[in-house]
Amino acid sequence: MNLFYNRRRLAPTAQRLVRRGRVLELPLYYLLRTSDLAREGLENGGSYRFADHIYRGLPSGRNLFGCWLDARLLAMPMVRSFRNRYLTASSELTAFLRLRSGTELDILSVPSGIPRELVDAAERFRGAGGSLAKVRFHVLDLDLEVLSEAGRVAGERGIDLHLHHGDAFDVSVYGGQFDYITCTGFGEFLDDRQLLELLSLFHDLLRSDGMLFTSVMRRRRFSDYLLRLADLQVHYRCRAELETCAAKAGFQSPQTWIDEPGIQGFLRARK
Fold this sequence. Notes:
The chain is an alpha/beta fold. The protein folds into 2 domains: 14-76, no CATH class; 78-270, Rossmann fold. The chain has 11 helices and 7 strands. It has a 7-stranded mixed sheet, sandwiched between helices. Helix 8 links the parallel strand 2 (135-141) and strand 3. Helix 3 (36-43) packs antiparallel against helix 4 (48-56) and helix 6 (77-99) packs across helix 7. The protein starts with 13 loop residues before the first helix and ends with a strand.
């Protein structure tokens, strides 16, 4: 199955808005396009560049108004919550590196996009005196352009990545087992059957006592509107639903929590 959602996708154009009878949204559509964040979301909804723009948190646009609008969008609760996903993933991985310090470890980000959570955690752990000599970092993505950019970004910060190219549902592309898997912003686009299949695959790929970190999204009216404007169809779930799915996949004592804006939820679970 080809289910990666960080690839570029067709976005709603002005013509499509007209065909759908959403003429009143055209002014908003054109205003949003002056923001680099909004334009990337509208043109290539769910792309790795869209996510990375939020993770970096640096406003930019086509003109002064576009930059101003970009800053306002980055400050929105739904966007701050999106960034919380990356910050929480980085914090969780840092804690795991400290817990398992000095042991042989294989860490995987899938689908990776630009794996800033992985790179930041490695850099923070190393900066605190930890050794990465026995740690191997892996990224898997369907997009070769993404993998190339991921390797470049990590290399600039002195982090070596093992690059895996392929579909997240294809067990043959992983090439081994792992001690930690981080997977955020992907399960939200899968139905219940697909999510269970993915988590079951992760359970099989993890070594004994391995850890999974993943995310879930809760529905909020305005954030849902913007996602639909970008033609992104999200499967919203509550914490209990994610816990149940992880337990069915074989994970032990799954723990979940929600971020402050109440949009992003997170799950930590052991094999």
